[in-house]
Specification:
By secondary structure, the chain is α/β, with parallel strands linked by helices. Helix content is 35%, strand content 12%. The chain has an eight-stranded parallel sheet with strand order 3-2-1-8-7-6-5-4. The model is unreliable at 1-5 and 290-295 (pLDDT under 50).
Length: 295
């Protein structure tokens, strides 16, 4: 497990490779194969969505391991064949094969992400429980649900939360309020409105590593009002000894690094009297560029 006193909260983005970040996060001259290492100089975790679509080669997994420091943490999605096609059933061999390929990174996995489809509802909870109980006890996982019943504050949601608590699984929290507050005047926002789930924000910690996916507004200052509640919730979790994961998205992710640093600075200021958070700063070339307003 990560040392909580060293990394009380982990901050990251939805990916580590994005061409728009060449002049900000990476810097001039950074080759594509060096992007993960450069990313890990600023952020200490990342969402690994590529594994949802295809299992990488084990040689690639080893490169990811070697490109990151010891205290870096990935949060890889389980393959869609497991979560969507098989809906967590009859997939023992699929899971075993996937974990074998990913084994070189095992000590750098923060959470294994189980993202479930919108039709995975209350009737499927026994399959989720059985699946969680099959996972090695040393694994930390997060579960993202999208079925409306799991956001209705009724018996179905209570049953889900109890199941997660009993199995020490984290409920992944999607905060898409900011992006849905943006007018659909750009292709990126229109695409986000079509693809991102519009579900209520239920900020509950069912285990020790609550994970927030904050889908930001394209106008940086417009995010502040939506982040205000997290400035209360995150310190409360930290004071209770939990280690949250905070991932910042934007509709096209072009300025996600800048937004992440901006919001993190607010959290640092909020907690300055109770807990010293480690710095997350962009490289000097980004801070010197007037295009990138961090504060």
């Amino acid at each position: 497990m990560p040392v909580l006193s060293a990394r009380p909260l982990r901050l990251g983005l939805a990916m580590w490779s994005h061409s728009h970040w060449q002049q900000s996060l990476y810097g001039t001259g950074c080759k594509t194969g060096e992007r993960l290492a450069r990313y890990a100089e600023t952020f200490d975790t990342v969402e690994g969505n590529t594994t949802f679509y295809a299992t990488p080669a084990i040689t690639t997994v080893r490169k990811w391991h070697d490109a990151t420091p010891d205290d870096f943490r990935f949060t890889f999605k389980l393959p869609s064949a497991i979560t969507h096609q098989n809906q967590l059933m009859h997939c023992d061999q699929l899971l075993a094969d996937f974990l074998t390929v990913m084994s070189p990174l095992e000590e750098k996995i923060g959470l294994w992400k189980i993202q479930l489809p919108a039709h995975f509802g209350p009737q499927a909870l026994p399959a989720l429980e059985k699946f969680l109980q099959k996972l090695p006890a040393r694994f930390t996982c997060g579960v993202e649900v999208r079925h409306p019943a799991f956001f209705a504050k009724g018996q179905e949601e209570t049953a889900l939360n109890r199941l997660l608590v009993d199995n020490k699984a984290n409920r992944i929290i999607m905060d898409s309020r900011p992006v849905f507050a943006a007018l659909p005047t750009s292709e990126a926002v229109i695409d986000a409105h079509q693809k991102k789930p519009r579900v209520p924000v239920h900020a509950i910690a069912t285990a020790e590593n609550p994970m927030i996916r904050f889908i930001g507004h394209p106008d940086d200052p417009s995010n502040d009002a939506f982040f205000a509640n997290w400035l209360k919730r995150l310190p409360a979790w930290l004071e209770n000894g939990k280690q949250p994961y905070l991932f910042i998205h934007t509709p096209d992710n072009n300025h996600a690094p800048e937004l992440a640093v901006r919001l993190y600075a607010q959290l640092q200021q909020q907690m300055s009297g109770s807990l010293r958070l480690p710095a997350h700063k962009l490289p000097p070339q980004a801070e010197a560029n007037p295009q990138f307003d961090l504060l």
